[in-house]
Amino acid sequence: MTSSGTAPEGRERVNDGARAARLAETLDVAIARLEPARPFAKPRYQRAVLDVTARLLQTEGGLDVIRSRAMQMDAAGLFAGSDWDRPEALLPQLVGTTLMADDPIFVALEAASLARFLAVANGEGRHENLHKDMAVHFLTQVLALNLKDIFGQSDEASRALGDRMVIKRQLLNYISEHIGLTDVLGVLVSEIWRLLEQRSVQVAVAKDMIAQIAIALDQKGTEPGSERLGAERLVSALFGPTVASLDDPGIDVYLDRIAHFDETALSREAMGFARAMHDTGLVSDYHAAFLVWALDYRDRPLVPEALGLGTTGLDCWRHYRRLIEDLIRTAVSPTTPQAAYGLAMLLERGVLHHAPMVPALHRHMQQKVQGDARQRLRLSFGDAVSPEAHLLAGVLQVIGQPLGVGQGANPTCQSARAISMWALIEPDFLLHLISQACEFDTVLMQFEGTQINSADLPAGLAGHGPIDADPVSVLLVSHLDRIYAEMGRLCLGREGDPHRWINPQFHGWWVARDCAVAVDVATGELAGYDRFLRRFFAAYHPHHNGDRPVSHPQPAGIAVTDPNQQFVGWHAIAILRVSADQAGVMRVYFYNPNNDSGQDWGGGVVVSTSGNGERYGEGSLEFGQFLSRVYLFHDDPLRSAEAADAVPDAELPPIHAQAAASWAADRLPQAAPAVVQDKMGTEPPE
Amino acid sequence: MTDKNPDKGYVAILGWSLNAINAIDQFDRRYVVVAPPWAQDYCAQNDIPFVPWDFDRLNERSYELAQQLKEMGVDVAIPIFEETVEWAGAINAVLLNQPRLLGQAMLFRDKSLMKRRAQLGGIRVGVFEEAHDRGDVIRFLKRVNQTLLKLDGDVNDPIHFKAFDKSGTAGHRVIRSPEDVDNIPEDEFPALLESHLDGWEFAVEAWIKNGKIQFLNISEYVTLGYSVFVPATPELEQHRARITEQIEKLIETFEIDFGFIHPEYFLTSDNTLYFGEVAYRPPGFNALELIERAYSFNGYQGLVVAFDPKTTQEELDAFFPTPIEDAKGFAGCFGVYPRRRVVSKLEIPQETADHPYFEFHELADPREQKVAKRSAFGTHWGLAYFFGDDPHQLRDLLKQQEELDYYI
Q1: Is B369 on the interface with A (CB under 8 A)?
Q2: Theoretical Cys-Cys bridge with B357: which of A58, A429, A589, B388, CB 3.0 to 4.6 Å?
Q3: Are residues A143 and A13 in the same domain?
Q4: In this prediction, does ipTM exceed 0.90?
Q5: Are residues A484 and A541 both part of a single domain?
């Protein structure tokens, strides 16, 4: 018999204080058995404690019992031998998933752990590794990350989860009742701002979180304060950025209202929208409706005002007004409001002045999406507007925000990076590929003279292509992915890393033709690593390369590590520029196709996404920290080795040490060069 | 680690039991675990004093182990499992300089010898016989039923088939017909045959020092192989005086000076006590934990007190509580077997989970979808523990569990 056939119909929670009191006694018995147990015997007695805890979770008043015994359970060794034994190292992101685990024992374990945090946060208990502030902060993050489960929005998915969802919701509510939601909003608001600063093309997650905040403000209310202010700024940007939309009246009512406005009032609306959009990168549905409405308002050009254009954008508007109006008419709608921000940024980049762009965009607007590509777009984005409208909106966003392209949950960083780099420096080429894919459902490329036709190739890493990415990626990635794999296949038998040949052929002439790799491909061990480091300095560091800037993005390979410096995998990124930040620290600014660049790679290497001179969508690291994670980069073959030789010896050991402490820990050659070993510090520099 | 008292004895634990080690590590005696070499790393990691030893068959090397323990200063060896009982006898014969302890241990290890010895001591036992092949079994089955004046076609009274040297229900089969006999594998012979006694089966746990009972517990079986609880119901406890007499007879017959015994008895409808068998080691079914739950003393630590030659009577008197009077309640456990042919998950039956007597369980998650067909008594998948004030309610509750699905 399968488990689905016997799924419980959502057990009634026993509304009985007596039951909680009795289980409390049983819990005490179980704790009393656990407490004296020797470390090797703990697991057996932990189970009984968790078994009772799991039943308490289903009992009215049970959470009080668990909380009152939380410190006792911890001291008795409930968490001994598990990750939970080190509360200071627990990750709030994982809590939500554990609370939904199949096995009630895991749910009980997480609940007991949260109860311990709560006891410390409230000052009821003390823990040697857990400070009160840390406990509050942790719980705040847990609540922020699970905000949608705090409020009783019962959707189909959560209903299907039955008991577990009920228990999770009650637990989260219990915590929020005890520590308050004010801090939670603060955490959530800063998290959203952090994401928005990166100006991703895909904003669904951020919008979703803002919607949660709106519900929270509405349902629970909070004390006035800076958190509330920040939260309201986000909510209003999305749901009511202007005077006429402030009360979120609905689009029909809104359009009725502005029909009676005079020019001053309309101009004020336009500027209100533009301000909110450039503030957050988010476009309100009202803004989209306003723009389309403004196309037919002849007395005053409200469009450039509503797009918030600067000098370059205005110049484009004056030159290509007809095209721009057509783009808005086709691409901007309440279903695709973000196209407005993409368009504004596209105009600001001035790319319309690049000769092929205007005809290429005209061509694109006439194009029908055919065959499989059409199906994929409909599958991804639905039928509220046509696949062509979605695709054009995607084109505007990708070209307007090239660094906002993300790979979604797909192993296709190479393809996402390619789309981003083309959008950045060769948008006409990108439009050419899109046109091929739309019309013929294929993409043609060459590899060292060999013709490659993606339609002839078997599905690649991403199968038939992602459906959780932007429209341009949904259209192109399945083709690019296959071509990339085919190029790899054509490199079979060559010695060394195939990216050496693939990257220039795949991306364009502007990828430097020489390639440095930190590891020996056959053994996976570090090989000639010091030379590798020297060459990177000579190629990219302005103090060592004659102050030569990076003109075109350069693909590079990164060894991604987790916050514990453990190797996670190889990852494709693009080096955009190298320059000093406002504090004079030399930094590498790069594009990461991962959806959120702000990552902690361990050992103090934390990728910054704002506040250190980053432009929208850039990640940055100090030069040495960045280099410590690079395993492959492109270099000019014509330049002599002198510059590399001239890099001072002292630059290398700290970088070498950071690599050796992280991704290269088990890749050190058997006979490591003694010189470097001697100089290596054990701790990476702060 | 608890400070150990150098003035008290130094004990060797024969056999690997984490529960025993956990309890004894918390006690005041120095100890060493003697167990197979695979436990070596684990003991090193967990600071458990350890001597590696293969308890395969008792052989001349037992003297070597005894000498090694003697040189370490060990005073006495305590068997934890049936298989280590004769080793403890052999070792204690050396350590305590009492050669007859080995012979005594052999009596505990061979159910046939054990019964004869009991019979010789004037203890009432059922009809029994050794079986060397299937023919012996059929003959015994027939003769027992003839004795009972059964006619051809009447339902046979069952007989019991037990391995000589296994503990608990391992190797225990109930034989009702010649077909049952055919199902006995060749390698289970020789074995002991016993007539079936209709009656109330129960077990006794007795800690003994200086030939005297220091504490006697009666464990009442609800269903053999499924459930047990302590202390027993008043109906059974009213026989305590007679039972104590029987145990004293056992001590005398088997010349037990110290240690721990775990005999089983039948109380038949004519109010006669029949001796079943006796083991010189802790019982299965975590009965010592039930006793601890009811009486708040640790049975393994009780073993150490009873075995250690340096234990004083004052210590014994302080250690053991007064039976019945000192019990806080009644503790029972139920061994869960999957009832369905195919199971996919563990789910405590709602009525059990909601019952105030239910405490917790130690049930394994179903690792295989297919349930092994039970031959003989088999092994349960874990125990569910109960505790309450009313022995009758507890007994009925344990009985009810047999009709419930824990695995679905």
Answers
A1: no
A2: B388
A3: yes
A4: no
A5: no
